[in-house]
Amino acid sequence: MDKIKLTHLKKTFGTQTVLADVSLNVKPGEIFGLIGPSGSGKTTTISTMLGVEKADRGEALVLDTQMPNREILGRIGYMAQSDALYESLTARENLKFFGEMKGVQQKGLATTIEHVSQVVDLQDDLDKRVSGYSGGMKRRLSLAIALLGDPELLILDEPTVGIDPALRRQIWQELQAIRDQQRSVLVTTHVMDEAELTDRVALLIGGRIVEFDRPQVLEQRYQVTKIEDVFLKAEAEVEK
Ligand SMILES: Nc1ncnc2c1ncn2[C@@H]1O[C@H](COP(=O)(O)OP(=O)(O)OP(=O)(O)O)[C@@H](O)[C@H]1O
């Protein structure tokens, strides 16, 4: 059973068609990458699938349920592009608050907070107020919050922006461990090396998914060795 299933989604803002016709599915136990030029509609795809924005046409099912749905939202680890954090609280207090909201048992909460803050390397800064955090630290805290409660589905909008390469690698190891537990991850990224690490990747160009397959299959199809080159060639073809 698919964790996400989008069928012929269309979304316009005024006269601008941002999503012309988007269909995709995310399976259990996979890391699914959504890549595309800036402004191609990656964030809109996410907000429409979650029901934050209303689709003009088509259907979006998340965990077999039409969104928006509060109960389902509670079962997803969602990291938006802008951080929604309590600035006047410390990181630990934020994690505690969101952990309780997600129903993490009080008994295991401290251990869970320990684990997610280690993944994003914030364990030494947990008792600082978020207002004193850098942009990258806030991103890392948002990611830690998304990881709370071991959600069966993670939806991460550019989770590694402003994050150093070594930590980025550590975060991807965690995403792979999550995948290996048969949980699913949908991730948008601008970093082509990251797209290489996904199980399947979709290229969103001009409001359509122009390619959608395993990275290696796409590289063979375009006779290149990197997803970056697939991306550039596909983009040039669309622009023709
Ligand atoms: N609420 C909105 N009202 C009007 N236009 C919007 C709205 N949200 C997005 N758009 C427009 O839709 C287009 C796609 O934006 P979106 O943020 O989905 O792209 P993106 O692929 O996520 O971009 P980036 O990679 O830069 O984050 C842009 O032209 C944007 O201006």
TrEMBL record:
CDD domains: ABC_subfamily_A. Keywords: ATP-binding, Nucleotide-binding. Residues 4-231 form the ABC transporter domain. GO terms for molecular function: ATP binding. The keyword Secreted does not apply. It comes from the Bacteria. The keyword ATP-binding applies. This is ABC transporter ATP-binding protein. It comes from Limosilactobacillus alvi.
